[in-house]
Write a structure and sequence with these properties.
362 residues; alpha+beta; Rossmann fold; 2 domains; 5-stranded antiparallel β-sheet; 20 strands; binds adenosine-5'-triphosphate; transmembrane transporter activity; nucleotide-binding; Mo/tungstate-bd_C_term_dom; plasmid; Transp-assoc_OB_typ2
């Protein structure tokens, strides 16, 4: 990550730390968000996503570090003086105001004349597909519709940056999936940068241009979904994003890294001489073979540990020595594979991603 702000960044966060008493909730967090970008903050519960979002919004003040928006240092500015808006999981619409007035409320408070405020509110409602509901009241709308009103209200003032804290998590799964697509399209149409908190990796993968993976107050990796999945920067990221077989590897001098399964030698990452490595192998890249060798594959022998057939896909877990290796196939592929049956596993060297372990792992 660059140490100096990118000149064209809309949001530039530098070396933020935040403590709650003795608890270190954010550690040296730096991040740039470009104009019009959709960035997801992703990580397990308690990793600091909301704390980071609240620091950007101004509801929390970092102990140290700076936050700039559009080049202006906003670190000590109150929320309402920042050129952004926030959508929370539990949005609160005014029950006694019509949908139109709920959305027009923001511009009115900013001194926009009523006629113009109403016009802007109508445009915003049209964008979220709710123009026909303008005269109704919040209690007359479904949860998904209410969430759309909350969104319209958040962007009616055309902020440069919209912060969203798990805005879809209160919706049922089907509606949530639909809203993910809608929200993504809306963001592209508006061209407003979104910073979106979620603990749902599928949600992050399907919506964001870039994903920020957090763990225990630290940013572990920033990248697009594909990069994070195929080239995880740490054991934590490999394990948190999707399913992963994590196998130990041992450095053998300049020769390479010796894998625990298949005992193949794979090349080093640069000149790194650290002794401990983890090999990441995704289950869809592990093939089951009925012969000990196959061209281009690293192979080994094992025994079926278990077979889980869910109709759409089959996961076969194979014990190879002391290691377990999951192999995933589409469809029903577990026929004839019973626990205890001997089987060969194979994978391509190019599908193995090697991670060097830090000297002291967090
Ligand atoms: P979740 O997905 O569960 O919302 P999160 O990643 O958003 O998790 P945060 O809400 O940022 O996590 O919290 C990070 C850590 O800081 C947690 O351990 C939490 O208990 C702690 N924390 C957050 N706010 C406060 C507070 N006001 N006072 C004390 N501790 C806090």
């Amino acid at each position: 990550m660059p140490a100096t702000p990118k000149p064209d960044a809309l949001l530039s966060i530098r070396s933020i730390d935040k403590h709650f008493g003795t608890y270190h909730a954010l550690r040296d967090v730096s991040l740039d968000v470009a104009h019009g970008e959709f960035v997801a903050l992703l990580g397990p519960s308690g990793c600091g996503k909301t704390t980071l979002l609240r620091c950007i919004a101004g509801f929390l003040s970092p102990d140290s570090g700076t936050i700039r928006i559009g080049g202006e240092d906003v670190t000590r500015l109150p929320p309402h003086r920042r050129p952004l808006n926030t959508v929370f999981q539990h949005y609160a619409l005014f029950p006694h105001l019509s949908i139109l007035d709920n959305v027009a409320y923001g511009p009115r408070r900013h001194g926009v004349p009523r006629g113009e405020a109403v016009e802007r509110a109508r445009e915003a409602l049209e964008l979220v597909g709710l123009d026909s509901a303008a005269g109704r009241y919040p209690r007359e709308l479904s949860g998904g519709q209410q969430q759309r009103v909350a969104l319209a209200r958040a962007f009616v003032n055309r902020p440069k940056l919209l912060l969203l804290d798990e805005p879809l998590s209160a919706l049922d799964l089907k509606l949530r999936k639909r809203m993910q697509i809608e929200l993504k399209h809306l963001q592209e149409k508006l061209g407003i940068a979104f910073v979106f908190v979620t603990h749902d990796q599928e949600e992050a993968m399907s919506m964001a241009n870039r994903i920020v993976v957090m763990n225990r107050g630290v940013i572990e990796q920033v990248g697009d979904g594909r990069a994070i999945y195929t080239r995880p920067a740490s054991r934590f990221v490999a394990d948190f994003i999707g399913e992963a077989n994590l196998l130990p590897g041992t450095a053998e001098g300049d020769a390479g890294v010796r894998l625990a399964v298949g005992s193949a030698l794979l090349p080093h990452l640069g000149a790194d001489t650290r002794q401990r490595y983890t090999a990441v192998l995704r289950p869809e890249h592990v093939e089951l073979l009925n012969q000990p060798e196959a061209p281009g594959l690293i192979t080994d022998q094992g025994f079926v540990e278990d077979v889980i057939d869910t109709g759409g896909q089959t996961v076969v877990t194979v014990r190879v020595g002391e290691h377990l290796l999951a192999s995933r196939r589409l469809g029903m592929a577990g026929e004839g594979l019973n626990p205890g049956a001997p089987v060969f596993v194979g994978f391509r060297p190019g599908h193995v991603h090697i991670i060097a372990e830090p000297a002291t792992h967090r």
